[in-house]
Amino acid sequence: MRKIRYLLMRRFTQIGILVLYFGANAYGWKILQGNLSASSLFETVPLADPFALLQMLFAGAVLATDVIVGALIIALFYAVIGGRAFCSWVCPINMVTDLANWLRRRLGISDVQKRVYMSRNVRYWVMAMALLLSTAMGLAAFEIISPIAMAHRGLVFGMGFGIGALVIIFLFDLFVHENAWCGYVCPLGGFYSILGKFSLFRVKHDAEACTLCMKCKEVCPEKEVLFMIGKNSGSVLMGACTNCARCIEVCDDDALDFSIRSQLEQTIEQTKEKA
Amino acid sequence: MRKELPNDRRKFILSMARGVGLSAMGALVWSAYVDEVKAAPLILRPPGALDEPDFLKTCIKCGLCVEACPYDTLMLAQPGDNNPIGTPFFVPRDIPCYMCDDIPCVPVCPTGALVQDSVTTEVEDELTWDITKIDMGLAVVDVESCIAFWGIQCDACYRACPLMDEAITLQYDKNERTGKHAFLKPIVHADACTGCGLCERACVTKKPAIYVLPNEVALGEVGDHYIKGWDKADESRLKDAKGGTTVTERSNRSAVDSLNDTGDLY
Ligand code: SF4
Ligand code: SF4
Ligand code: SF4
Ligand code: SF4
Ligand code: SF4
């Protein structure tokens, strides 16, 4: 159980959120209505996707206060607390890409396949392009093609061809490149990487305890963020870390754990050292 | 070391060029697709919706309006529907809009894509919902397939209309073929019709002879250069009209001079 406690928690929130949305549409539950683009919590608190809002602003929309307040609430939550946690705790695509990656490891595809070169920065380019195209085309450009929104809406409001989005991402991740969609292409992941850069919730590494088994790097979907493993203690500070806790679970030596304030402490220490 | 520098720079420039090339190609495909979906004009939006271009900008595709509708009238466009994906619409032939008095679908919209002001009126200093103000489209009658235009009594659409005698009236004409019967022809009036589609749903023919089209498609536009001279209100548009005179080389002279001048012709 200890080995999968975070995995269970993540699946619980991911599926739980979907169930609440589904229930609101199908049975009229008044807990969480709408979908991940915008919703209303207990019919009072508005919530909204800050990246969708940004695109709409770039498209030149004049928006009502509700959706702006909603987007600010979500943006503040991830900026101050969650980091890029949306990706591993909320986004329904994560379950699909996790499955693809698990299969990949099981089948040893990465060992056989010649690595195609892809840059992690593609997602930031796609993000910038989404904003530019929003202005040029006069509507939120990523929202109209987003496989995340398509699949998610499909699960809540009825699927149609939305299932295709899930299948394509699954095959993309399974056969083209490890973590191809979430780790390289998805602009929403890129957006949350930037937004959550300075959040308080962080994974912390204890180099003293580390036995250099490197299981954490093997399982991490954003390996680059673990560059300090076995070298120096401290928090994982790169924004691309999704706070999924897979590294924490896989570590047999207690060299990794969550720490809420470690980033704060680290910055304070650094300033003290300088002084 | 020295020798490698230009090579590095070349690599860098080449990888930048590749990035730019890929981005340009991506942007082309992406924008072509967006253009394609945007071009679906035959879509009926929920009550109080902004004009289509602004609606597409403003709607965040949350589906809150869809969930608020008690009749399951509204749907979110799915991939494959050939409509802008994720945006709400309705198909009156399947489920029309029942024109709820309290319009539950409008106030839940968080973005302002559905405008509350457009569906309220002030009654004794108090804002109240006014469903008759909605204007989602216009019902159009295909007079070839409407049996009332054949001379058979029907009036199903007329009776289904929530704005009976305002949005649809019956026009009584003499049936010259029989000489002793009357036509009861349904006539739709654009200023009152809300586009709810209850008439389309009620129509008795195999494929409805009356159907709702978006205003953009159903309505023509006269322009300002025709004026109803018999209508005082319309004629008042002339009051501030200024006549313009075009001055050309020829109009400098009197008309007769100009006509008599054969120029270099002979
Ligand atoms: S990278 Fe994109 S698709 Fe992947 S989990 Fe994050 S938001 Fe979802
Ligand atoms: S007015 Fe009533 S029936 Fe019509 S779309 Fe809104 S909620 Fe549905
Ligand atoms: S409630 Fe408003 S923003 Fe949400 S889907 Fe309906 S029209 Fe769009
Ligand atoms: S759409 Fe038909 S039923 Fe609705 S208001 Fe217009 S004429 Fe009447
Ligand atoms: S219900 Fe159909 S057939 Fe009957 S009068 Fe109306 S349009 Fe004509």
Task: Work out the largest interface and the residue count of each chain.
Answer: A-B, 52 and 37 residues
Largest sheet: number of strands, sense, barrel closure of chain B: 2 strands, antiparallel
Instruction: Report how far apart the termini of chain B are.
Output: 89 Å
Beta percentage of chain A is 5-15%
| CATH T-level topology of one domain in chain B | Alpha-Beta Plaits
State the secondary-structure class of chain A.
mainly alpha
Largest sheet strand order of chain B = 1-2
What would you say this structure looks like, in words?
The complex is a heterodimer of chains A (275) and B (266). Chain A is mostly helical and 275 residues long. Chain A has 2 domains: 2-194, no CATH class; 200-274, Alpha-Beta Plaits (2-Layer Sandwich), CATH 3.30.70. Chain A contains 15 helices and 6 strands. In chain A, the strands form 2 sheets. Chain A has a 3-stranded antiparallel beta sheet with strand order 1-2-3. A 3-stranded antiparallel beta sheet of chain A has the order 5-4-6. In chain A, helix 1 (5-27) crosses helix 9, helix 5 packs parallel to helix 10 (162-176) and helix 9 packs across helix 10. The mean pLDDT of chain A is 83. Chain B is built from 8 helices and 8 strands, in the order αααβββββαββαβααα. In chain B, 27% of the residues lie in helices and 14% in strands. Among the domains of chain B are: 52-133, Alpha-Beta Plaits (2-Layer Sandwich), CATH 3.30.70; 138-218, 2-Layer Sandwich (Alpha-Beta Plaits). Chain B has helices spanning 4-38, 52-58, 64-68, 156-160, 198-202, 215-218, 232-235, 255-260; strands at 75-76, 88-89, 120-123, 126-129, 138-141, 168-175, 181-188, 210-213. Chain B is extended, with a radius of gyration of 29 Å. In chain B, strand 3 and strand 4 form a beta hairpin. At the A-B interface, strand 1, strand 2, helix 2, helix 3 and helix 7 of A face helix 1, helix 2, helix 3 and strand 1 of B. One iron/sulfur cluster binds at residues 46, 59-65, 88, 108-109, 111, 113-114 of chain B.
